[in-house]
Amino acid sequence: MAGDTVALNGTAGGVDLAEWRERALALEAAVGEAVIGQEAAIRLLTIALFARGHVLLEGDVGVGKTTLLRAFARTLGGPFGRIEGTVDLMPNDLVYHAYINAEGQPRIEPGPLLAQGDALSIFFFNEINRARPQVHSLLLRVMAERSVSAFNREHRFPHLTVFADRNKVEKEETFELPSAARDRFMFEVGVSSPTDPALRRKLMTDPRYHDVDALIEALPAGIVDYTRLNDVGATIQRETRVSDALTDYVLRLWDATHAPGALGIELDRVDMKRLILAGASPRGMSMLLRAARVAAWLAGRDYVVPEDVRGLLAETIAHRVFFTPVYQLRGAELSRALIDEIVRRVPAP
Predict the structure, then answer these.
(1) What's the mean pLDDT when you consider all of the chain?
(2) What is the fold, at CATH topology level, of the domain defined by 54-223?
């Protein structure tokens, strides 16, 4: 193991992983100054950035989802695009907008996806569940291929990370994300109000947290070089080891998502033989190990331990396990309960 540690303490493939780890932790600290009481969500977003995955945030209204994403966009640096989900939003609204200019002539300008060209760093989709399925389909390609076709050519976004949020309270004029679109998000992260009384009092009474624009503007911009995230992420994946024993453990977790009854798992008011429609996908398990490598790197290790995997399993896999129609309405409740039981039942190396 001593030989493997060199990669984290020195330079590998032109990337100094120790220096980049310090930058990643500095980014987390800066975001934590603006969004207090959300340490778990901040760590998950940091992992996703360096694992080159997209993130969907979900929570009640007013808990800070948008502020959290804006803070990351600010500290990450680079051009970003943003769009608000509405019931009348159409796919073309992402790539261009048409208007009549002052001379009465029709004009077409690039939309939020194209306005920054191939330098686009963050695309922020607010209230994604208010957008129509046609919009979700376009976003699916953008997330999967980091490209879109418009104006008779292919536009590529090599540095792009998609952040989206949705609130779980309002259901009027909303559209559920299809499973294919949800599978493209590395994480689905729940955001809730802080429970610590001191933090709750601070959010309520400190004027600093009442002006979100000023709060975000005060954050340092560009703590990391977003154009190098692909190289850094690839180096982390190469230099962080996953043992054979841990790989076998992850395979057993994967099997358990398809046949939890084989482990003797029982859930309240559930016929386990009729529960699972589809277990976790190969893409989901691949993303789990990608994320676990980054978690190990942030912890200062060049090898993954079971705690890295267990700590990310719910956010990575819960939205990739699909239930039969009779249990769909209880999906959010059952998926987390199932993941907890799988973690408890599958022995770790």
Answers:
(1) 89
(2) Rossmann fold (3.40.50)
